[in-house]
Amino acid sequence: MGSVRVTGFSPASNGFQFANSFPHSALKAFQLGSVATLDVGDAANGLCGGMSFTTADLHLAGLRPPPDTSPPAPDSNAYRYIVDRQIASFDEGRVPLRFYSLMEPGRPVRESWLAGLLGMVGLDRHSRTWVMVHVEWPRIRKDLDEGRLSMLGLVRVVDTDPGKLGHNHQVVAYGYDLVGSALRILIYDPNWPRDETVTISLDLGDERGTATPVWSKPDAALHCFFRAPYAPADPTVFR
After folding, report:
1. What is the average pLDDT across 179-189?
2. What predicted TM-score, i.e. pTM, was given to this entire model?
3. Three-state DSSP class for 181?
4. CB-based burial of residue 152 (10 Å sphere; 0-12 exposed, 13-18 middle, 19+ buried)?
5. What gap in Å lies between CA 220 and CA 232, rounded to an integer?
């Protein structure tokens, strides 16, 4: 039971004033000796992880984001910082793997007694509901109860095609309301700048049941969420 907010944070004041919409540009360019330049990633697919991480960095540093309502230019230091934080948000590939695991269509709809036994031998056959209620929400709650922003990965597609990993999303949780088993998580979403109405709701009452998270925005379905690891960096370029 209760309501928790991270002190001093609100999407309208602490989130970027521009939306997660960038022109086509490689996230990183690697020079392959004198042979060629290899471009990796495309900012036009979104920099939600980088924007989320940068927002948390700024909050920890006691800084407000710039007032700009348009994204920074690809040749700017601010843009390069967000791109670097986007790459950091992948946690050396572990976050995309977590997305892909939770996207799996073969996950059981309900938690079964067999899942626990398989877990003992390293096989994850838990339902998405069990994962959210039993594993991920306690981790998110610990962050928020201790006054920290929490990074969330939102699973918005169920499919075996790794090419659809880009349909998923990363956001920032900055508070929650819990009444009985009814949970509402408050979200800063880079896709919805200055919007303080973005939430995720979930009934925590039955970890072995079929609870589906409810996303307050109509832009995509939501199948599951998880806590993504975050380590702060000094946002020097914004000082």
Report:
1. 97
2. 0.90
3. coil
4. buried
5. 29
